[in-house]
Write a structure and sequence with these properties.
39% helix; alpha+beta; 5-stranded mixed sheet
Length: 481
């Protein structure tokens, strides 16, 4: 058995990082908080061996080891905060909110910065009880149990901080740069605490009021939170669903589902059912009913910017599906206009940035602008052509004959349609390529009549037939005469 354990150890070292997943195999930590130390025990040579004792020891199997258990307490934390349960119990007894930091002191790359900033935070005199969940390497097997201690389930990347009311109702979740800055955390927590009285009043009403009145109070409380926080607030979501089981208020669609959940509901209307129960496909789908459903949800409750962007994106999705099924030009314009409404709500949000990309993608009047020599799959359109403007200013040196070529990457082998090549200088048309405008070609010739100054571009139409990530390569403008 011991030889087998040694074998496992060797395999783990070769594979790399086994200690992270099962550190007790390396004697770093054993279950129950015990450290296992190894004590060497040599095997004695057999009497019938003819070799010397030194030769036998040198050629023997690896030394066997016997285990010696030493009691050891939990590893020290660099933060002198109470642990999660202790901090929450103290907060409840004092009637104070609790602020719990969840991090990994011995594996997070920026753990030192987090510790430094949270030590500063301790001196800010915030009206909260500070606590921690330090997910050290050796505590990984306890992760699922630790998650159950907080009311919001699994997190994203650590570090994460959670603010809870004295009764452990979720108040706020803080991630990213906010958690790594004492000043940012102080500002964010104070902002959350400022809305806590009104929020907790609504929470109490949600718990005590019957039926739809309770559901409306829960929804109003959820609307006070950033959307991502509301989506993880199981306590209020449970109240809402329990007191409005038929979803008469439509609040479920606003506050009880994430981004993909919204698309599931929209598709259920479009297709006349979910999954195997769907009754419609293609152009038969219920586009008008889906649009009516989305607009009705958007009028059901108070929408913060995130919810406005989410459901406006849902409308854009309906228009996109309708356009793809029918190719009606008016639907494409409606699709682009709707994405631009998402951008206008908040250009700097993730929704705003994503919507801008898709608005430009579907907008026929919006060209993709490149500098030679590379084009990439991220700029591909599928199912329709897109205007490309390629800056070739560095390659055009005076009048003469020039060859412009598209050279697909051998690793991609994407099938491009490219046609209608023209040469422009400072936005003015100079000449056309030698090939007909409707011919699909990858190499054309331009006869440049004079010296051109300023920005010189080759403009043409492109479509990739192998999907959004199927085409990439080089663009070359070379003088031949």
């Amino acid at each position: 058995m011991k030889k087998f354990l040694v074998f496992l150890l060797l395999v783990g070292v070769v594979a790399g990082g086994l200690y992270y997943y099962n550190p007790e195999l390396l004697g770093l930590e054993a279950p129950g908080g015990k450290v296992v130390k190894k004590k060497a025990k040599k095997k004695a040579p057999k009497a019938e061996d003819t070799a010397t004792t030194a030769e036998v020891v040198a050629a023997a199997d690896p030394v066997e080891e016997e285990e010696e258990e030493i009691e050891a307490g939990p590893p020290p934390s660099p933060l002198d905060f109470a642990d999660n349960l202790e901090a929450r119990a103290k907060a409840k007894a004092e009637g104070s909110p609790s602020l719990i930091l969840w991090y990994g002191s011995d594996w997070m790359p920026d753990a030192g910065k987090v510790v430094t900033e949270w030590n500063k935070l301790e001196k800010k005199n915030l009206p909260v009880v500070l606590g921690q969940i330090d997910e050290r390497v050796g505590t990984v097997p306890e992760l699922n149990q630790r998650e159950k201690l907080l009311p919001i389930g699994a997190f994203m990347n650590l570090p994460v901080a959670v603010l809870m009311a004295p009764d452990e109702t979720l108040l706020g979740i803080y991630t990213g740069k906010t958690v790594k800055s004492a000043a940012a955390m102080e500002k964010a927590v104070k902002r959350t605490l400022a809305r806590m009285p009104k929020y907790m009043e609504l929470v109490e009403k949600a718990r005590s009021a019957d039926g739809l009145e309770g559901a409306r109070a829960a929804a109003e409380a959820l609307a006070m939170m950033p959307y991502e926080d509301a989506a993880r607030n199981r306590q209020l979501k449970d109240i809402l669903n329990r007191k409005d089981p038929e979803h008469e208020t439509l609040f479920r669609y606003l506050y009880c589902m994430d981004h993909m959940g919204m698309y599931d509901e929209i598709n259920a209307v479009l297709n006349g059912g979910k999954g195997a129960d769907a009754r419609f496909k293609g152009a038969e789908r219920q586009f008008a009913e889906a649009e009516k459903f989305a607009r009705k949800v958007m009028k059901a409750g108070k929408l913060n910017n995130e919810l406005k962007q989410r459901w406006t994106s849902g409308l854009a999705y309906i228009y996109r599906e309708h356009y793809m099924a029918t190719k009606e030009p008016a639907l494409r314009k409606k699709l682009v206009d709707t994405y631009r409404k998402v951008v206008a709500i908040d250009p700097e949000s993730e929704y705003g940035k994503g919507a801008l990309r898709w608005a430009n993608y579907w907008d026929e009047s919006f060209p993709y602008v490149f500098d030679e020599p590379y084009y990439d799959s991220g700029e591909m359109t599928v199912g329709f052509e897109k205007d490309w403007h390629v800056n070739v200013s560095q390659s055009v040196k005076g009048p003469g004959s020039y060859t412009f070529s598209l050279v697909p990457s051998p690793s991609k082998n994407g099938r491009l349609t490219s046609r209608g090549f023209k040469l422009f200088a400072n936005g003015k048309h100079v000449c056309d390529a030698n090939e007909p405008a409707d011919k699909d070609t990858k190499t054309v010739t331009f006869n440049v009549p004079r010296t051109l100054k300023g920005r010189i571009e080759v403009r043409f139409k492109v479509q990739c037939h192998d999907g959004w990530f199927g085409c990439a390569g080089e663009m070359k403008m070379e003088k031949t005469k």
